[in-house]
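This is your field. Have a critical look at the following sequence-structure pair:

***
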Amino acid sequence: QLYEEVRLPPPRQFRDIPLPPEPFRDTIPPPDSVDNLLYHMYETVKEARWNDQHRLAMRQKKFSENSKKPVSRTKKNRVEQEYYEDEIPKDIKSDDRIHSYNSVEDNSMFQKYKEQFKKQMSFTGIIYSDAHILASTLPYFHISEDLRMFSPEGVHLIVCVHGLDGNSADLRLVKTYIKLGLPGAHLEFLMSERNQGDTFSDFERMTDRLVNEILSHISSFQLPHYPSRISFVGHSLGTIIIRAAVARPQMKHLLPKMHTFLSLSGPHLGTLYNTSGLVNMGLWFMQKVKKSGTLLQLSLKDAVDIRQTFLYRLAQNCHLSYFKHVLLFGSSQDRYVPPHSARIELCKAAIKDTSPIGLAYREMVNNILCPIINKPDVTFIRYDVHHALPNTANSLIGRAAHIAVLDSDLFIEKFLVVTGLKYFR
């Protein structure tokens, strides 16, 4: 039997609305210009490459014109030799080396314009293209999950703690990409859930819950699968709970096992000197409505004497120096947590502040950093993150950047693959 394909139009309610006549159509607006130095650098490189290609095309044209003229074989060879020697160095004679030379030339041009870009930005840090060797070169799913238990390095327990009004699934992407990037490593994840639903209570109560949760989880391990290393990943409020938990006497026997502390937008110095008046007003309103002890403690107003506040006392009893790697992430786009608080550093307002608050703030920074500086074997790194965010209300108030460290697959995967995974080995 033969079947004829019949194409019927869709029902009327599903058909596209016909376009209006040409005179009544809206004009296509020109594309918006983006004032971004990266685009300017790209255009500069593009123009330079076009000039090189144009110069090469002109020489090829000249060579083709010369080849059409009736010349002797000796003269023709001389013309070819002059052409090639004008294009490549004397030590390059084969086609393979010509391609190699072009790639080296492109790389040197890239390095040149990258340095110009960094000078224009007055940036003295390290960008990801400076890392010549990735933190992990193994492909995902390269080693079977069943072989993880045979890892000679033992069990690595990674505790993930969410932030204010969060839940145990907030750090799921971090967990996923660490497991994908380290196939064969025996990783155990504890996604803390004891505090979800009650993150507005005071830090002391939430610290007790986290300590009990960690000790209860570790007690479930049996030899030889007892954790040999313990790392912590915290977001926002969770980083403070982690620091408070590590400083508890019940955790003292675990201090030699501390490996990596990854802080994602953590308010280690509270919310002092926050430049966003809108966020400050919102936090004040939430503290009044929710009767939140944590927001009061973050503003360092939980005691009359600032040196009796929770964060100041925590800075005096800081145990970050027990970790082998301390990684701090902050962003100037984040209005919820000031970047100087997330990166544990001084800001201009704190330096100029001669009041008791400014003095206490500087003491907090010294109390946290001095033990780390005095231990040269501790890796201490600050990261300044800039996200490509749309122009929305969340971006305006700074919430988008605050949660981007949780929701951005691109950011999390790039950080871990380029440099982050080596701190979890």
Q: What stands out?
A: The CA atoms of residues 18 and 24 lie 13 Å apart. The chain has 15 helices and six strands. The longest helix spans residues 37-68. The two ends are 65 Å apart (CA to CA).
